[in-house]
Amino acid sequence: AQKVTQAQTEISVVEKEDVTLDCVYETRDTTYYLFWYKQPPSGELVFLIRRNSFDEQNEISGRYSWNFQKSTSSFNFTITASQVVDSAVYFCALSEVDSSYKLIFGSGTRLLVRP
Amino acid sequence: EAQVTQNPRYLITVTGKKLTVTCSQNMNHEYMSWYRQDPGLGLRQIYYSMNVEVTDKGDVPEGYKVSRKEKRNFPLILESPSPNQTSLYFCASSKQSPNEQFFGPGTRLTVL
């Protein structure tokens, strides 16, 4: 069965520290998609990235980077030189072709960046 | 402006009183979906729709109904709300699944 695990419930760092948010997924599909969303204190959900199962290249976008490793079923998210504005809840999600692309979310990791 | 709108944003109601939460998108997206967000559980999909007149159950459909008569609208209906449906609800749309889903601002529902 499909499942997304974000074992870190809450992380607290000091500004400018690097931080990695872990995401481990379970799926039987060979074709699937992984996502990260950000939910700032204002409550909206902001799309950050989508990655398909055939593309294991790491991705970098400014201070954000993602490490996708099929061998360990992980899709980890790193924020470099964190800032207070990065404080939010971050969700990892999985979408499988065989489940009509139903989106399965992890329970989220709350990141607090202290000044 | 491309957006997903939900109404109402906040609602307090009583057990058993039927209610509808509306969702509308102006991006001509085929795919729409409803989620509920509960502490420690993340977001769970309630229902989704791949296109007009095509809907299907997500992970937690019990107690909810949906319809998709028009492409832009995907209302969520609670025929007889119960306190365990107190939650934060999000509507989302995308051009085609599994593309990026655009989320509405959320509806905070309290059922007393």
Characterization of the model:
The complex is a heterodimer of chains A (115) and B (112). Chain A is 0% helix and 54% strand. Chain A contains no helices and twelve strands. In chain A, strand 10 and strand 11 form a beta hairpin. The N and C termini of chain A lie far apart (41 Å). In chain A, 32% of the residues are buried. Chain B is an all-beta fold. In chain B, 0% of the residues lie in helices and 51% in strands. In chain B, the strands form two sheets. In chain B, strands 2, 4, 5, 6, 9, 10 and 11 form a seven-stranded mixed sheet that branches. Chain B has a four-stranded antiparallel sheet with strand order 1-3-8-7, with no helix packed on it. Chain B is globular and about 35 Å long. Chain B starts with a strand and ends with a strand. The chains are: A mainly beta (115), B mainly beta (112). Chains A and B meet through strand 5, strand 10 and strand 11 of A and strand 4, strand 5, strand 9 and strand 10 of B.
Question: Strands, helices and their partners?
Answer:
The complex is a heterodimer of chains A (115) and B (112).
Chain A (H helix, E strand, L loop, with lengths): L2 E3 L4 E5 L4 E3 L2 E3 L5 E8 L6 E7 L6 E3 L2 E6 L4 E6 L8 E9 L6 E3 L3 E6 L1
Parallel strand pairs in A: 2-12
Antiparallel strand pairs in A: 1-4, 3-9, 5-6, 5-10, 7-8, 8-9, 10-11, 10-12
Chain B lengths: L3 E4 L2 E4 L5 E7 L5 E8 L3 E10 L2 E4 L7 E2 L9 E3 L8 E8 L7 E2 L3 E5 L1
Parallel strand pairs in B: 2-11
Antiparallel strand pairs in B: 1-3, 3-8, 4-5, 4-9, 5-6, 7-8, 9-10, 9-11
